[in-house]
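hey so i finally got around to running both of the ones u sent me last week. sorry it took forever, my laptop kept dying halfway thru and i had to restart like 3 times lol. anyway pasting them below in the order u listed, first the sequence line then the structure token line for each. didnt double check formatting much so if smth looks off just lmk and ill redo it

first one:
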Amino acid sequence: MALPPVLRGGFRPFFFSGAAWAVVVVVLWVCALSGAIMLPTRFDPLAWHRHEMLFGYLGAVICGFLLTAIPNWTGRLPISGSPLAGLWALWLAARLALLFSATVGSTLAFFVDVGFFVVLGLVAAREVIAAKNRNLPIVVMILLFALANAIDHGEALGCIDLGGLGWRLGLGLVLMMIGLIGGRIIPSFTRNWLMKQGATTGLPGQPTRFDLASLGAMALALLAWAAFPDAQATAILLLAAGALHVARLARWSGLRTVRDPLVLILHVAYAWLPIGLLLLGASIFMPELPRSSAIHALAAGAMASMTLAVMTRATLGHTGRPLRADGWTTAIYALVTLGAALRVTAHWLPIDYMRAIEIAGTAWAGAFLLFALTYGPKLLGARPDGRP
């Protein structure tokens, strides 16, 4: 019996469900923030919103990406069929258990939610170790992500008090994944596109010691921020890391890709990373600079833009479609960028702050809704060329 298309590759159920969940989370958060509803979770509304965007939405995207990338890394068969359905069901159960934790209890939500990442990490480890592949550090980061998730549960429920260590550690790990994986794919895709346009000079090259130094500086800065978020030494490390990643991005010739949104969005998404690092470092020295602006530059900006860039490109490529951004895809990129920019600058806009948040949330959620509507049929349906 042939598998339904949605269970033929990990990116299919997880990219679609992740995008749909992002819309749900933002809508519920904005409604709760305005006082229109009360969320049925034991987390306070802000903690739930933060947790679900980081470990819920992003957890789905990470899972979809890993299950799709690992066969390319290892040459082994992809996870599909019943095992894929079971992993997806575990992710969905975690989302519902946490949302309704005031009813079903926080213990169930904890074990299902953390358990999802432990299972994902073990599955990935089995594949990578069996193939003796070099990507074992990615697996370690998934297991650390599970630890950060567990800490965030404990802090949100008042079991431990580590000053927000859980979500900061989780966000830091995500940013390191963006730096590590983005540093591989952005110069590679840019180089390929420029060569197709006939360019022979100024092409991005392979990662160098400078890239390793940039990643090392960011790892040190984010670790310091997770442990000592208000220390001046942390601010200096964040500012230095931000400056290094400005220079790193400048070496990838992003301005030359303006004619191809599918490549350009990768550079725009990565640009949010140094912007966020610089804002975060500056906010420690200047308390009048809202810390939330820096966090949203990293989350609503770098995290969301990069995941949408990867999801759209991977979906097109793995469903047998041309790697070309149509009008809908370009609109997705424009909306997520606009939403992030409005959220980061909300404190300084000449309109009511709450209204600015609502507009930013609408634009940002609109990007994910548009992805679900336009890419959903591609993810849930068969390839147009009839291949498995």
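and the second one:
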Amino acid sequence: MWRAGLKWMFLIIGTTIGAGYASGRELWQFFGHESGLAILLFTLFFSICCNVIMNVSYEKQSTDYLPVLGDIVGVKLTKLYDVMIFLYLFTTTVVMIAGSGATGQAFNFSYWWGVLVIAVCLIILFLKDISGLLAMNQVILPLLLGGLLYILLIFTMDQELSLFSHLSEQRNWTAAFPFTALNILPLIAVLGAIGNKVRSKQEIWIASLGSGLTLGTISFIYNNSLIQIADELLLYEIPLFAILKHYPFGMLIFMSILLWFAIFTTAAAGVLGIVSRLQSIINVPIWLLVILILIAMIPLTTLGFSTLISYIYPIYGILNLYVLTRLLLYPIWKKMENNK
């Protein structure tokens, strides 16, 4: 039970903690100053949403996101959100591939080498369906989370920062809504594809609470660190590098490798959501679908990593607010529907 719950927890975190999040760019886009309450609300909302999505997926024993989506947003809006999820997964996976290129550039490699490496790795990963992704998450994510937390805590101690010095200033609390909403659609896509593999509701509780608390804690510490170097962030495509410049080059290398794996896990989760949906329409091997999808994505990465996040993420965060509302109120309106 615990092992299975942790497996799903790492799948959820791997879907969420990609290039935008792990680099700090996404956190800074939504949070920043006066956001402690916003991050607390995000933790609560995120756990509730994961719990609802996994329960619906488990009850329907789903293998792709469409049945889960239909139950959450209703029959009338299913087609609209089906298209939205597909576009979301497509564009955010483009962001991840661009993030791989940006990471390569930080070490003076060609942008296209970074893009090529992640594309080849994605094709190799999906030669062995979903099991390869789950196995990779269980190895990579504890390293990534541990490394990220270590860097942030060391930075907090070195700079003598107080984690709770601005508790009276919480005017940005509304940021919790678009930030949570932004991360909901990929979770519907990915968790909708594993409903037939979940064995008990205990697994669901472990996965949803564990992922919410883990992401909430790291988000709070990370955001607090970024506030201290706010003036420098304009100079960096990847804000994490503004923190790492205070430390030895070896630390930069280590965290850059882990950052790349964060990018890779989210790209893989996005590709999983896309191919599981397409396979219900087109009966072709997963690896072939992955190749075709990547061929379509790669030209779009030329827009640049921070540009893509700056424009795409806030738009999706707002568009997904309806889905977030449906998920948070799911037990209430489901009970009302059953009583009719």
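quick thing i noticed on the 2nd:
Residues 187 and 274 are 12 Å apart (CA to CA).
anyway thats it, ttyl
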